[in-house]
Amino acid sequence: MCYNGVSFNTENGVTTPLPIPRGEPVNPKLWIGVLISAVLLWLSAKDVDFQRAWEHVEKINAIYLIPYLALVAAEVVVRAARWQVLLAPVKRCSFQKLNSATLIGLMANNVLPARAGEFVRAYVGGRMEQIPFSTCFATVVIDRLLDGLIISAIFILAVVLRPVPDFVKAPGYAAAAVYLVALGFLFALLVRETATLRLAGFVLRYLPARFGAFAVGVLQTFVHGLHVLRSAQLLLLAIALCVGVWIVYALTFHVMWLAFGIPLSLVDAFLVLSIVSIAITLPSTPGFVGTMQAAIVFSMGFLGIDQSQAFAFAVVYHIFQYVPITLGGLIALWLERLTLGEIASAPTGVEA
Questions:
Q1: What are phi and psi of 93, to 5 degrees?
Q2: Residue pair 263/11 in contact by the 8 Å Cβ criterion
Q3: Integer Rg of the chain from CA
Q4: Is 128 within 8 Å of 119 (Cβ atoms)?
Q5: What are the domain boundaries of the chain?
Q6: Is-above-0.85 flag for pTM?
Q7: Residues 6+ positions from 15 with CB-CB distance below 8 Å
Q8: What pLDDT sits at residue 166?
C-alpha cells in the first residue's frame, strides 16, 4: 500500500513502512508543493523594498537571539515530554531517546518531501524503543490532533481579542471542525472498534480500493496506540504539555519581534502563530519555504507592520528556526547511528 508517497506493508495486522525503491518517478505532490511554495514566496516578496528590508536586518538587537534559540530548544524538549506521556500506557520510554526521535522528525520535515517528519519520528522512536511502528504512529497522530485542537482554540481566542478580516476566520474555524471530528473518530475507534471500522469501511468503499484497504488496515493497528485516551490523568497532562508547546512557540515570535523592535503583543503572536500553523498544512517544499513567509507577511500586514519589515522578520525568523533544528537533527541522527538514507526509505525494522 502507498500513502502520501510512502509505501507500507500491512501484513499480519501490522502496518510498517517499506523501503522507497530507487529510480521511481518523483511524486507529483512534490512538484505541486514546489509550485505553491514558489508562488507564495513571490507574493510575499513582490512589493518588498529589499534595501529597507536589509536595513531592518542590520538593526536587529542580537542579544534577543539567545533567548530565542533557548525557546527553540525548549519547544523540542516539551514536545518530547508530551510524546513520552502519550506512550506511557504502551511502554515506559526513555526521554532522551524520544527527544532524539522528535528532533530527527523535525529535521526530516526540513529536508525531506511530503512532510515525512511524522512518519520518520514514529519509525525512529519505535526503532529505539522496540515498539511497533503502527503503535508509535498512532501516538504521533494523537499528538498532532492535540496540536490542531489547541492551536484552533488559540486562533478562536485570538480573533476574539484581536479582530481580523472575515476571510481569515473561515480557514481557522474549518480546521477546528476537522480536528474535532478526527479526535471524535479516534475515541469511537477505541470505545466501539468493530462498529467504527464497519462505518469506516462503508464510507471508504466510495474511494479507490487500494486506499480504502490501506486506511482500514491502519485504523485496525491504531487501536494499540490509543490507550492514552482511556486515562483522563494522562490525557490532561498531554493537553497541558501541548498548551506549553504553543506558549513557547508564541514566545519565539514575541522575542524575535523584540529583536526587530516591532511593537506587537503576545496576543498578536498567538494570532500570527495560528495563521502560520494553518498555512504550513498546504503542500510546500521541505522546510515550509514560501508558506511560512507568506503567512507571516500577510498576518503582520493586517496588524499594521510594513511589508519590507515583515518580510525581513519572516526570513530571519525562519532561518533561526530551520538551521538549529536541522543541525540538531543531523547530530541526533549521527549519535543514534542512523543515516538520512535510512530514514528517507524508512525500512521495515521496527519489531513488536
A1: -95, 155
A2: no
A3: 21
A4: no
A5: 37-336
A6: no
A7: 8, 9, 133, 134, 137, 217, 218, 221
A8: 67
What lies within 8 Å, CB to CB, of 309 at 6+ separation is 52, 53, 56, 260, 262
CB burial string 59-73: b at 16+ within 10 A, e below: ebeeebeebbbebbe
pLDDT given at position 348:
39
Place of cell 494570532: 271
* H/E stretch holding 6: strand 6-9
Long-range contacts of 127-130 (CB under 8 A, 24+ apart): 127/349, 127/350, 128/94, 128/97, 128/98, 128/100, 128/101, 128/336, 129/87, 129/91, 129/93, 129/94, 129/97, 129/98, 130/350, 130/351, 130/352
Phi-psi category of 4—alpha, beta or left, where left has phi over 0 and alpha has psi -120 to 50? Answer: left
Residues 6+ apart with CB under 8 A from 53: 308, 309, 311, 312, 315
Tell me, what DSSP letter sits at residue 4? T
From first CA to last CA, the distance across the chain in angstroms is 20
Q: What is the pLDDT of residue 139?
A: 87
Q: Any idea what the Cα angle at residue 90 is, between residues 89 and 91, rounded to 5°?
A: 100
Q: Say what the pLDDT of residue 314 is.
A: 97
What per-residue confidence (pLDDT) applies to 225? 63
Which pLDDT value is given to residue 224? 62
For residue 11, what pLDDT is reported? 43
Mean pLDDT of successive 10-residue stretches along the chain, which has 352 residues: 43 43 57 90 93 96 96 96 91 93 94 84 91 85 85 79 70 73 74 74 67 63 67 87 94 97 93 89 88 94 93 97 95 89 61 38
